[in-house]
Every structure is written in structure tokens, then in C-alpha cells.
Amino acid sequence: MMLIFGLMLLLQTAACVEWNCSFNQSDPCYTALGDKLNLVMVRDASEYDLKLKKRIDNNKKVDQICRVKYSNKKECDLYNNRTEVTVINGTVLIKRVIRSDSGNYTLTLTDSDGRETSRDLQVIVEAPIGSVNVSIICSSSGVMRVSCSSEGDQLLYNWTLNGGPLMDGNSSIDLDEETDGNISCSVKNHVSHTQKTIRLQPCPGPDRFCSFNQSDSCYAAVGDKLNLLLVRDARDQELHLYKMLMDSRELEVFRIKNKEEKKHESIRNRSEFIFDNGTLIINRVIRADSGNYRLEFYHSDGSRTFKKHLLINIEAPIGSVEVTINCSSNQRSVFCSSDGDQLLYNWTLNGEILEQGPMNGNTTIQLNEGTDGDISCSVKNHFSHAQKTIRLKPCPGPVRFCSFNQTDPCYTALGDKLHLPMVLNAIEYDLKIRKKIYNTQDDPVCRVKQGRIKECDLNNNRTELTVINGTLIINRVIRADSGNYTLTLSHSDGTETSRDLQVIVEAPIGSVNVSIICSSSGVMRVSCSSEGDQLLYNWTLNGGPLMDGNSSIDLDERTDGDISCSVKNHVSHAQKTIRLKPCPVYVVSVVFVLVWCLQLMVLFGLLGTFHIYMRHTSGKKQEDQKVRMRRFRERHEHTAEDS
After folding, report:
1. CA dihedral (5, 6, 8, 13) positive or negative
2. Do 97 and 44 belong together in one domain?
3. Shortest CA distance to 413 belongs to which of 239, 182, 571?
4. Of 37, 38, 39, 34, which is closest to residue 52 (Cα–Cα)?
5. Where are the transmembrane segments (predicted)?
6. From CA 407, how far away is CA 400, in angstroms rounded?
7. Strand, coil or helix: what is 259?
8. b vs e for 613-629, b when ≥16 Cβ sit within 10 Å of the residue's Cβ?
9. CA distance 94 to 77
10. What confidence tier does 586 reach under pLDDT thresholds 50, 70, 90?
């Protein structure tokens, strides 16, 4: 019993650390809670009267004071009722530090001549580091969060993985779920230091369930936990699980016989079999687990009862989706990419479906360069889904440069970026740019002072208009930017100079179309059309010039060769060449004429017959009328005679 008590006393004594501080030091005095502190005030206290004051609010009635004269405490309310605090030869000895010992202290030394000197010291008491605990949490998002915790004050954390540094300062760190190795958390403060190392193992993936009774394929994600139901109860079964290889060979992956299991090395260290429910569990499946599997059952006499097949597909899940934009001369390409297998892409623009379809790797969609809005790329496979939405903005056009020093107009294309230098050094001038519309004070004005826009109603809330080092920059020109501008420079002496510039914005040339019309008069008319402003046309036939200026040209119907239509304006140029062929000649055949004449003869014959028939019918009607009249008179005469 005495031996145990002695060991406990020895451990307690060894655990107590002694700290030494002095009023001569400029940095704070750190000491651990419960440790011993030696606080040196002066080397020889016999030469001074000492006054040690703990400053609370610099109030003499509140501040605690300890007076020492000739090395002995005379008055002390600093350490009332604390027997573990003593003063020995100018040193305050605190055998067991408590939290209230923290604070700002002032030491005043009074020598025999009555002269005083003062020294300050800040004492900071911290709880030492306790035991360090490291824990792991695996999330469904594929993140392994490692957390470190410990008791103590003002803790600083430091992480290492397999001896390599990771990140300092945080009590937790996020790692990839497949991270493996030894991770160490080191915790320290000003008075102690402790470390804990644990072995990391990859997080188990989400549970996936498949069965040899299912007719469709079994899909699982790389890293998932695959629960593969072989049989309802395997306690009295003999079964063999085979995997078909590419070279028509087969590999026995798993076997149960006489309640003993045998596993192939490919799954041995990451699988387990549950006899009660006949389920083979494969932790963290890999791509190599994909394949055609055959399950066979056997009687006790070795004869096979039946077999089943199952196709297992292991796919990488969707990673983060990236959407990028590439602007070309007349359109923009939007690219969507993501990690994963068997990816299906789906595009929407402002909520409307654009295009979808299977594609491995990257997929691209072409949009007009002026398209604006929110475009979303949705990527999915059999068990995961991710999406990325970005804001589309019109592509910046080519950069054009004009200057107020030029005398000819400034031509720029609609949608281009225009750099308009006003002066080489804008700091030397106050600048005023006015767009002349009414030639009155109501014209829009932009004022620039010391190279910065101070007031500007030219831009009308257009963020793409800026002034940088004396250059007016319009990131995307619109038609309203056309006009006559006056730049006024005000010098430091009050003098002013003005310069004028006409800006003309034109729509660039679109695609050129060439069409041909053949007329019956033997003329071939070739027409040229295109979008754009202020178009000028130029024609060549087989490399030779024809005529400039018109959008159409008349040629002989027998003309043959390559004809080119070139269209240009002040800001762009385009051309289209097509192959001419002579117009077809229309020949009237003899057969056609004979048939036409025969048709006329038949028509006239029918008309003559009809005419004769009508005359014959009309004469007969007149004859019948005469006979009826004659008979009527005869009856009338006989009647008169009888009477």
C-alpha cells in the first residue's frame, strides 16, 4: 500500500512543471494551470521596498497590492488565504497556479534614496492540453471529415498525412473518401503539446443491392458497397461464383462448400459473406469488378442443380460539372465536362431544353454569339446526377481603335470593342466629351477628371463603358453610339481646346448567298444578298472583273464558269463563289405541234356538229308549229259549217 502511494506521489510530482518568469522580460509570461510559477521581481530584495500591483481597472481602491520590505511580505491582498504563495529573496513563488493569477502586473521598486522605478508584466494562465481524440465521419457527398478534439486553452492544430503536412489551424479537415494512410493531429498551446495518430481507411460507399434473381443488369458506383444476394439461406448449400474473362476463360471468385468459404484474392480483403441471408458483401467496388457472373448450385453428391447469370456494371459517379465558353468569329461554343462513366448530357437555356444525347467525355453546343441568359448543363448516369448553370453574356467583338486626332470618320462594327483615346495623359486635363444631338445644353456629356469619370450621361447605366488612362473604352458597341462627338480639354491655366470626331457604327457582313434565275428572253440573272449595312458589291467571272456596285447582274444564258460575289462595307468583308451552267434551251417538238393541231380539229368538228344539230332541231320545231296551226284552222272551219 505504501508503495502504491509513493508511486502516485511521484507521478503527481513529475506531472507538475515549474515555470520561470521575470519582470525584466518584454513578452508575456505563460504558465500552465496547476503548475508552479517562479516570478522573479528583483535579484536582491534587501535593497528595495517592493510594491506589486495587479491592475484591474487602474483604480487604487480596487487594484490588489502586495508590499515587500527587506524580502518579507508586509501587506498583501493579492494572495489572501493562499498558503501556497510565498516570497523568497525577491521572487514570488506560486506552487499551484490558478486562473485568477492571470492579469497585468506592475512592480514598483523604491531604493534607499527614495527613487522609484516601475516594470510591467502580463501573466497568462492556460489550461494544458488534455488527451487528443481523432474521429472520422464519412458523408454521402464523397467527403471524409477528420476531426480532432482536446481539452485546453488557445489550442492550435496541425495535421500530417503519412508524414506530409496538410493544413494548420483548423480542428477538422476534409479529405477524399478514398484517402488511406496514417493521419496525425498535433495540438499545442503556449504551455503544452500532444499528438494522436490513427490509421485511415477508405470510407464505405453507399449500399447497392443486386440479386441473381433479377433480369436486368446490376449497376453500382465505384466505391459503393455492393450487397449481392446469392441465395436466401446458404447454411446447407454448396455454391460457386464464376466471373467470365475476356479470353473466354473463367475465374472462380467465391465458393462455399461444407460451410467453408473461399475467396479469390481480388475480393478477399474487402468482402464478407452472410450465411443467414446468403449475401456476398463487396466493400468499395472497383471497375475491375464489372463483368458477367455465373452462379452455380450443387447437390451433396456433386451434381449441379441449376445456374444463374448476372451482368454487373461498375461505373464512376458524376464528378463536378464544368461549363466553359469559347467565342469564335460568328458563334460561340459552350463546353460541358465532368468525370464519370456512361454520361448523358442535357442542355437548357433559360429553362427551355436545347439538346440531349449520350456522349463520352466532353460535349459541346453551338449558340449564336448574341445569345443571352442562363444556360445549364445537366450530367447523369445510372446512379448519379450533377448540374452546372452559368450566365451567358454576349461575346466581346474584335477591338477597334480610333482617336480624336484623326480627321476621317471612325468606323466600328456593331458588337465590337471600341478604344477611343482622348489624350495621352488624362491627369493633366479636365475632359468633357459631348455627343452633339441638338447642339444645346441638353446634349449628353461625360466629364473626366484626373483620369476618372465624374459625371456621365453618355453611358445611360451601361457598365461596359469605362475610361482608363485617358481612353474611352466601349466593350460592346451599339447603334446608338453612332454620332458626332466633341472633346474639350481644359488646361490647368484655364485654356480650352476642342476636337471633333464622327463615329459610324455599321452591322458587319453576314453570310453571302448567290442565286440564279433563267428567263425566257435568253437572260441569266445572277443575284447576291447578305446582311449588313452600307453594302458594296463586286463581281468576277473566272477571275475577271465584271461590274461593281449592283446586287444583281445579267449575263448571257450560255455563260459558263465560276462567278464570285464579293460584299464589303467599312468594317467587314465576305465572298461567295458558285459554278455557272448555261440555261436549258426549250425546243418545241413536231409531235407536240401535231397533237396540238389534232386537238384543234377535233374541237372545231365538235363545234360544227353541234351547230348543225341546233339548226336541224330549230327547223323541225318550226314545221311542227305550222302543222298544228293548220289543223287548228281546219277544226275551226268544220265547226262553223255544222252550226
Report:
1. positive
2. yes
3. 571
4. 39
5. 585-613
6. 16
7. coil
8. eeeeeeeeeeeeeeeee
9. 15
10. low
Compute, in degrees rounded to 10, the torsion defined by CA atoms 294, 299, 305, 309.
-10
3-state secondary structure of 180: coil
Give the residue from 476, 506, 536 where a domain finishes: 506
Say yes or no: 403 and 502 in one domain: yes
Which H or E element spans position 616?
helix 590-642
At 464, which amino acid appears?
E
Nearest to 379 by CA among 350, 347, 423, 402: 347
Tell me the backbone φ, ψ of residue 455, rounded to 5 degrees: -155, 130
Neighbouring C-alpha atoms within 13 Å toward the C-beta of 419: 11
Domain assignment of residue 626, yes or no: no
- Is the per-residue pLDDT at 8 higher than 80? no
- pLDDT tens digits, 521-566: 888 999 999 999 999 999 999 988 887 778 999 998 888 899 999 9
Which of the listed residues 506, 530, 554 is the one where a domain comes to its end? 506
pLDDT greater at residue 143 or residue 235: 143
In a domain, 24, yes or no: yes
Q: Looking at the structure, do residues 224 and 272 belong to the same domain, yes or no? A: yes
How many CB atoms neighbour CB 72 within 10 A? 11
Tell me how far apart the alpha carbons of residues 236 and 325 are, in angstroms, rounded to a whole number: 62
The letter for the amino acid at 27 is D
Given CA atoms 86, 87, 89, 95 in this order, what sign does their dihedral have? positive
State the Cα angle at 385 between 379 and 388, rounded to 5°: 55
Nearest-angstrom CA–CA distance, 475 and 417:
4
In single-letter form, the type of residue at position 341 comes to D
490 and 517, same domain (yes or no): no
Task: Concatenate the DSSP letters of all residues of 437-483 into one string.
Answer: SSSSTTS-EEEEETTEEEEESSSSS-TTEEEETTEEEESS--GGG-E
Whether 600 is covered by a domain: the verdict is no
Q: Which domain holds residue 221?
A: 207-315
pLDDT in tens, 111-150: 878 888 889 999 999 999 999 999 988 876 778 889 999 9
Which residue in this structure is represented by grid cell 476531426? 147
Instruction: State how far the Cα of 296 lies from the Cα of 237, in Å rounded to an integer.
Output: 10
> Would you say residue 611 lies in a domain?
no
Q: What is the pLDDT of residues 21-68, one digit of tens each?
A: 998 899 999 999 999 999 888 887 777 788 888 887 666 655 777 777
Task: State the sign of the Cα–Cα–Cα–Cα dihedral 468, 472, 477, 478.
Answer: positive
Say what the pTM is: 0.44
User: How are strands ordered across the β-sheet holding 452-456?
Assistant: 410-413, 496-506, 483-490, 430-436, 445-449, 452-456
CA 5 – CA 623 distance, rounded (Å): 167
- What is d(CA 94, CA 86) in angstroms, rounded to the nearest whole number? 7
Q: Phi, psi (5° rounding) for residue 107?
A: -105, 125
- Residues 75, 49: Cα–Cα separation, whole Å: 12
- pLDDT tens digit string along 419-456? 888 887 777 788 888 888 877 777 888 888 776 777 77
Q: State which H helix or E strand residue 612 sits in.
A: helix 590-642
Over pLDDT 90: what percentage of the chain? 29
- Rounded to 10 degrees, what is the CA torsion of 418, 422, 425, 430? -130
Distance CA 394, CA 405 (A): 31
Under 8 Å between Cβ of 390 and 412: no
Total count of domains within the chain: 6
Spatial contact of 576 and 528, defined as CB atoms under 8 Å apart: yes
Going across the sheet that includes 156-161, the strands are: 164-168, 156-161, 181-188, 193-200
Q: Say yes or no: 330 and 276 in one domain.
A: no
In degrees and rounded to multiples of 5, residue 9 shows phi and psi of -65, -40
